[in-house]
Amino acid sequence: MTPYPQAPWTLQGYAVATLHLIDIERVRALIPQELDIISVFPGKTLGGVYLSNYSTGSVLQYSELIVVAAAVTHLGKIGGWVSHIYVDNPDSVAGGREIWGLPKELAEFTWGNNSVSVRQGDCTLCTLNYNPLFSVGWKPRLGASSFSHNSELLSFAFEVEAQFGLVNAQLSVPTASPFTDLITGQPWLAISATQMQLTVDAPKVLTRR
After folding, report:
1. Which Pfam families would you find in this protein's record (predicted)?
2. Could you give the count of Cα atoms lying within 13 Å of 112 in the half-sphere of its Cβ?
3. Which of 78, 83, 128, 209 has its CA 20 to 30 A from that of 48?
4. What does pLDDT average to over the chain?
């Protein structure tokens, strides 16, 4: 019997996401050859950082840090490529690796008033401070996709319903962080999601590797 729930996972809580322009040459070696990197500006792709806390009502309760290294496409399907992902629940690590082929690792999360810091051992991975600017008055439902791989190239869809808002965010990624070369400078856009319900579907096999 597995220590984690089977897909789909339904998670409730809140999140903050930052969007960054990322140098394609810095991430090319991280992307499987089957995927084409989307260029949004010459030499630049779109990526970012997603920090969330899933609480009561979730299939598992945990915090999560996701680093999206690039926007990619495969046979007309568009999605993100997750290069780094950290959580504070070992059952989430196991489920993320075995179901979705995601490279989840354990880390420690410290949530404050409009701030969060993530550490792994003695290394600070990142620190985010944010202040709400405004939010929409309704809860739209949005869908997107992501790619991953284990012995196969996978794609999985996710859907999020939340009250979204804009925030003023300051992200610090120390030089010792594993993704310091990917996420440089401050985000050009930062979004919050409160009263969030996230559903992550089981993956589909795209190609045998």
Report:
1. ADC
2. 9
3. 209
4. 95
pLDDT at 91 over 80: yes
Task: Quote the DSSP letter at residue 28.
Answer: G
Q: Decide: 143 and 157 in contact? Cβ < 8 Å.
A: yes
Cα dist. 174→59, 170, 171, 190 in Å? Answer: 32, 13, 10, 19
Q: What is the pLDDT of residue 3?
A: 87
Length of the chain: 209
Quick one: how far is CA 69 from the chain centroid? 9
- Cα separation, 138 vs 101, in Å, equals 34
* 169/129 Cα distance (integer angstroms): 6
Predicted local distance difference test score (pLDDT) of residue 151: 84
State in words which class domain 9-208 has.
mainly beta
pTM score over 0.90 = yes
**pLDDT tens string 153-203:** 999 999 999 999 999 999 999 999 999 999 988 999 999 999 999 999 999
Nearest to 5 by CA among 97, 92, 66, 65: 92
The reported pLDDT for the residue numbered 94 is 98
Tell me which residue has tokens 């120390």. Answer: 174
- Report how far residue 37's alpha carbon sits from residue 35's, in angstroms, rounded to the nearest whole number: 6
Burial 66-94 (b: 16+ CB within 10 A, else e): bbbbbbbebeeeebbbbbbbbbbbebbbe
